[in-house]
Amino acid sequence: MNQLFYGSICLTDIVEQAKKGHSAFTKAENGKIYANVNVLINDTVDKYGNIMSCQLNPKKERKDEDGQPYIGNMKRSEQKPVTTNDVAEIESTVNDLPF
Q: CA-to-CA distance for 37 and 39, rounded, in angstroms?
């Protein structure tokens, strides 16, 4: 069964680490820059409800030099049951569309 997680990553920290030359970043032949990351599933949920965290994944030979800074956290997404009020609100919104 697929599981959905949601969260955020700190773009400021990612850009800062890229500018420092962190070895987690590589430029592909297509010209795009990629960040190698580790995603860890925690044994316990933290006080904010996060169950996963994300770190930059440096090259082995630069692990001690670059470190593995945390760049984000994630929570498990849980579907909320649809209520009658939700359906009425959706129908109202759809009926107001100009097409």
A: 7
**What tokens were used for 1?**
């069964």
Buried b (16+ CB within 10 A) or exposed e, 33-45: eebebeeeeeeee
Q: The pTM is what?
A: 0.70
Give the CA diameter of the chain.
Answer: 60
Give the pair of three-digit tokens for residue 67: 């470190």
Question: Tokens 């909320």 appear where?
Answer: 80
Assigned token pair, 3: 């599981």
User: Is 91:18 a contact under the CB 8 Å cutoff?
Assistant: no
According to the model, what pLDDT value does residue 70 have?
93
Query: What stretches of the chain show up as alpha helix (H) in DSSP?
Result: 11-19, 63-66, 84-95
pLDDT tens digits along 35-66: 999 999 999 999 999 999 999 999 999 999 99
